[in-house]
Model the fold of this input.
Amino acid sequence: MNSFGVIFRVSIFGESHGPAIGINIDGCPPGIKVEPEDFMNDLRRRQSGSTGTTKRREPDLPEILSGVFNGITTGAPITIMTRNSDKISSDYDEFKEVPRPGHADFVARQKYSGFSDMRGSGHFSGRITWGLVAAGVIGKKIAASAEISAKLISAGGMTDIEKAVNEAIATNDSIGGIIECRISKPPKAIGEPFFYSFESAVSHLVFSIPAIKGIEFGIGFAAASMRGSRHNDPFIDSNGTTSTNNAGGINGGITNGNEIVFRVVVKPTSSTGVDQTTFNFTEGNMTTLRVKGRHDTCIALRMPVIVEAVTAIAMADLILIDRGIHHKRKG
Amino acid sequence: MNSFGVIFRVSIFGESHGPAIGINIDGCPPGIKVEPEDFMNDLRRRQSGSTGTTKRREPDLPEILSGVFNGITTGAPITIMTRNSDKISSDYDEFKEVPRPGHADFVARQKYSGFSDMRGSGHFSGRITWGLVAAGVIGKKIAASAEISAKLISAGGMTDIEKAVNEAIATNDSIGGIIECRISKPPKAIGEPFFYSFESAVSHLVFSIPAIKGIEFGIGFAAASMRGSRHNDPFIDSNGTTSTNNAGGINGGITNGNEIVFRVVVKPTSSTGVDQTTFNFTEGNMTTLRVKGRHDTCIALRMPVIVEAVTAIAMADLILIDRGIHHKRKG
Amino acid sequence: MNSFGVIFRVSIFGESHGPAIGINIDGCPPGIKVEPEDFMNDLRRRQSGSTGTTKRREPDLPEILSGVFNGITTGAPITIMTRNSDKISSDYDEFKEVPRPGHADFVARQKYSGFSDMRGSGHFSGRITWGLVAAGVIGKKIAASAEISAKLISAGGMTDIEKAVNEAIATNDSIGGIIECRISKPPKAIGEPFFYSFESAVSHLVFSIPAIKGIEFGIGFAAASMRGSRHNDPFIDSNGTTSTNNAGGINGGITNGNEIVFRVVVKPTSSTGVDQTTFNFTEGNMTTLRVKGRHDTCIALRMPVIVEAVTAIAMADLILIDRGIHHKRKG
Amino acid sequence: MNSFGVIFRVSIFGESHGPAIGINIDGCPPGIKVEPEDFMNDLRRRQSGSTGTTKRREPDLPEILSGVFNGITTGAPITIMTRNSDKISSDYDEFKEVPRPGHADFVARQKYSGFSDMRGSGHFSGRITWGLVAAGVIGKKIAASAEISAKLISAGGMTDIEKAVNEAIATNDSIGGIIECRISKPPKAIGEPFFYSFESAVSHLVFSIPAIKGIEFGIGFAAASMRGSRHNDPFIDSNGTTSTNNAGGINGGITNGNEIVFRVVVKPTSSTGVDQTTFNFTEGNMTTLRVKGRHDTCIALRMPVIVEAVTAIAMADLILIDRGIHHKRKG
Done:
């Protein structure tokens, strides 16, 4: 199930060490300006390079294979890909017998009967999210009025993220983090109950991103400790502006026009430089594994732009559906 | 978008004060025993009646309109419905001009251009979840080996839930809560990356349930503060059993055979007996609203069975997809 | 797979002798007037009663369970059903061992492992098309500018249809026919290449109707004998009007604004009063079967309105998709 | 809507004169042998070169970008593409003001507001069917037991096809034809009523192929002139073998195990070397157009393999769905 969306549909493909990775985007309206350079800012934000990220370097230049002509979308499906390079596949050989704890090695072998290409974690690699970011650039153009901005607000339990990363590096370990996404000037009234609420669409895509294990909208889990009279956001004008925003801009699965706010948790990178006790499936006994290769100390550093991208993809789909059904509505 | 699922598809319908509510279930294999009484236990768990729940009483008896013959599923679509009764629609008239804070009143009017039936909150009512519970009963039969069990683990921030409810009643206010769902003996290797991970499927459905604002799998948001070497779950035998279960039974979006664990947060019921300052859209000024009618002090009390139901629906779909693609796999 | 559509989705349910048959319609815009009497004309056209149709009589009154409030669609899913009555199930007992040639008896038993409810042909019965006609009434309202009109243009190979039917009755046999559907004033530019061309959408639904075995658009099969210079329809004005209409109003899967024309073939009713040699699966030998019960001599007589209905359903979906993607287009 | 399928999903992309064309295939089971050379036979059958086909030559070598590792499918999505070459785009400039009769020029401009890339007919080009043939190769491997064979049985109304083509070439005109597809040893009991009958799935895909205007299953349109007693296919043994095959191997939308037979009609190529009277949309008056460039006299010559391909794609999807739902059925 490597596609998602009702009208604005994305189909993702590629393995970490295969020939190429990319994404196919269907249902994009014609007439939208798209130049290769439009992708560079977001793709660069996803790239490694800063402290705490892997030493694998990919130029990651996008090639647009279809759907764009003279720098404008045509209405035909858009396929964007990039070639893989800088691959060191031998790093991954031993995980066949000793699957890495926390990784997909074990489940992938079970599910795909041993046929999956697990070099560089294959189709499970965080590298596959390149295609999401590319599609997100298109999605942002469709949700043009909205300003989608995600950032890492804590790492390893600390708000001083640089300090947290340096401490983790010092112990050869990895850390996770929390990303907050805010959407100002969102389109009003998008989200399609019962089963395609704004939260449903966003969470569906968010949980496709490797390493994400939780999401909360608005005040989120803290709502469990609040009284209703405090949690409810009072309206203060005829636009539907509310004086508080505990709902995170969404009521009944539909955007109410206030800022949309949600947070996701990124687990610590599974690959660490620390010895781990685990099981050798070939020999049938416990063993010690230290994952070599090049890894991110804090993969969450690279993920805000991915969270923005899937949000934009979900919003683009919800906007086009809403326009289809409610085309007569004013505004 | 009132349907969900790839093979096992549910289509929900009905409004709180309309003639009937129900669900259509497609893709159910033939040969499964289904009697009307099979639904009663779960439907009763969803019903109101205990302290902290609304005084509206519905017999809620299910009528199976199709797809079951001689107490066995036929392979044709199953439609299950129940008539609405005990309706007092006049309670809802004033919300047209003064939309209730925290409710869907405002967004529904925006989205549906004023045409939605908002009596009893209409299609946004928690009452619509009756159909989810009915479909969940079928879903549980498909995921037969698994034991799905959800319970309310805290309310209003307290683990003594009875006390929390009584305190809220005493102040005419409402409270939320946290529900934990555990699935023991889950099927191994279900979940379809990239876009239909186990978490994606479950969260998509969970966020269709009114009042849910967050979900976390395994150790969840606490993972943000853990080191990778602690978070990773070491394998201890050839079945893939792990000594800890921070991943909540899921790696790479695929079940690993360990217990599946997730938690959701239910916001406090929006309707409370407390005066709330809000906006009168007809008069264009601030006003005070007290919601009359019959409401749940703690709607979370009635929701564990709904969380179980959507989990079972998601699992049924993932199981049938997995069988379709991987039918040759042993086990 | 008992649902169809991308935005305007129909989910059909029911068996011929079960409690009820009906349809669930999702994605219908709010604000459309729908009264129970709006259905009566089309439902009556589908009914039996005239010479050449079955003696089974069903009042077939529609009950709208959801999605319509004060005679106007709300935007929530619309469920419409009718109770089954006038059932004589004993007629069908013997087909378990001697499946009727030309019927679904044999394949249904194979596919559903003997669990399907085959009373009155169950979910395979032509009776299930009641729901299509009901949904078609809504579809026609969405495609409001278009006039969809289907009629039986030949039966048993003759254009004098009354004569053909009487001859078939005289021999206790059955006949098929050809239905032509014409859509004047169609919306221009609907149809979504590559995979959801106008022809794809219509043919998909047309072949869901029992007994239809072929479809051709425009000049259809006759095109195989024409030269391109004759087949091409020359434009004669800036609206895209063409002097001939061999394409049947569709180029490249997209409507060009000219009248849409297609024809479908209905096979003769499988059940006849004539002795047929066939196989007894219980005894393992050849036998002679005469189908008793009440049947249509020429089921095609009742089918023009069903063909109109599925056409309207397809058009409604294509219109809403087109509006979603191309909302900025003028006109 | 450039994707199709429930489990086995294909997403097509590319324009005739863009950088590349290709297809993305999702839901393919792991463990299937796929080598680049497996595609060559079918891709060559689709190529031009013989008398009556265009002089445009493309090497059309497939590049597998993902989903295949060590010559075996991995279970991850398979993307296959080929670069476009031998493009002469200037041929197509004048069609902007004088759309070619019978072509998509006019509707594409309407639908895509003038933004579509119509060089070489863009996404409407027959060239895009390359991806279908590539996916069909995979589909045939899934439907491995079945032998799918399509051939051109008449052209320009003649069964001597070579003669028909030569006559058309002599007059600079084009001709259509009729292709018959036969599937021997088909899987029994595939097809999913109500809306995904075997005929629905195949016709949906068949009408995505440019130039096809009709389809009939079994005896097809001739059924309209037959009596039921003659049309019904009598069973002659316990396997469900029938003595005649007027149903074309399908009852109630489900395969009955007999040979599957259907025919499609291909209209004459729209581009001909004959002068055509048509409309100049810029000048607003009638004009004479002669289409230059390189074209097929009889595009139907190249289409049998495409018809096989879409049949295989439909069958692969129906097989995987059937396995998912009916996994417990013997056989």
